[in-house]
User: Fold this.
Amino acid sequence: MKNTVNRAVALRIVQLLKEKNITQYRLAINSGITHSTLKNIIHETVKDNLLSTVILIASGFNMTVSEFLDSSLFLEENLDID
Assistant:
């Protein structure tokens, strides 16, 4: 089953939170976005994630966007892009 881009972003955030052992709250602060925005992204209540938000989140993980997107979650064959 393929993921939507929003689902892939949410899964990647959760994966990195575990890998880097940081909380959603700390990531929100590091990213400069509100905790509620981050929570909405993770729970997929946001219809379209903006690239600018993904850039902030990557920065909050102290990563480049390329590093954030360097996951099989974002391979075209794994995404349902309509």
Remarks:
- The CA atoms of residues 12 and 73 lie 7 Å apart.
